[in-house]
Amino acid sequence: MTLLSPHALFVALLSWVWAAPTFAQSPVPTSAPTPAPVNTQPAPATAPQAISGPSHPWVVAAPRLRKEAYFSNLADGDTIDTPYLVKFGLTGMGLAPIVAPVAGTGHHHLLINRDLPLDFNKPLPFNDQYIHFGKGQMETVLNLAPGAYQLRLVLADEKHIPNFVFSKPLHVIVKRKRPGVDPKSLVVPGVAVLAPGAGETVKPPFRVALHASGLNVSSTALKEKGTGHFRVKLKPEGAPEVVLPLTNGFTELWLSPPPGAYTVSVEFIDNTQAERVLATGPATAFRVER
To answer: How far apart are CA 244 and CA 45, in angstroms?
Structure first.
């Protein structure tokens, strides 16, 4: 058998490669590609944007940037008769009805003889021990029978999911129930400055606590009928008045003004009709000292 030289072997291999059959590729389609299906569904509505608070050099953040709920007219260990109008306060957050999500807002829930929920990712239940105030209310009438009770406020979003803003537990004793008192008679629509008190001397920063009775508070991000927001008027003695609208749904603000004598009053402004005043509270005189 004759052996091929390396050069002859290389030439033979090249000849075989050139003679190898070629394989036809699949034909390229000449028709236009099928268009992707068009989404005819409307785009989801954009959530209302959070509203910032009043901008003024005297307006400051709450101490330690705290966020908490509290009872404005009850203290731990109080003894009361029912029906009793209990008032809610809120620091570092605003109120809004359960219409749409608005950052920095929520609505109150009153827990009666219940501890904080174990899971803050689940909505609060609806029953006699979890009372919801989804319209932006700042109060309710307690009509409890005589006995001892634990009360607590929890703020939650529009889906009733708690947002880690709550009050300390408060223990009260209902001494007696007054059958001749109509609970509705305790609710008199109006607004008021709860703090500072008349004639009080305060040191900055101090809280201006407000209350709305028979009215629903909301951030102006929601133009919801039947809601409004506070507008604070602060008048330094011998100086122009300072107007501070709380369009973010806040029910209080913290101030650090110069020392001196002041008067403060509050108005409640309609959220659907600009500049329409729904209620006006009396002025309160106080002093600021360093």
So the answer is: 31
**C-alpha atoms less than 13 angstroms from C-alpha of 271 in its C-beta half-sphere:** 25
CA gap 118, 115 in Å, rounded: 9
Residue 50: Cβ within 10 Å count: 16
CA angle, 136 as apex, 131 and 137 as ends, to 5°?
Answer: 60
d(CA 43, CA 176): 56
Give the C-alpha separation, 67 to 39, whole Å: 43
Q: Which residues in the chain land under pLDDT 70?
A: 1-47
pLDDT in tens, 105-120: 999 999 999 999 888 8
Structure tokens at 85: 């109008």
State pTM to two decimals.
Answer: 0.82
Q: How far apart, in Å, are the Cα atoms of 82 and each of 19, 173, 272?
A: 106, 10, 36
In the chain, the domains with their CATH numbers are: 65-182 (2.60.40.10), 190-288 (2.60.40.10)
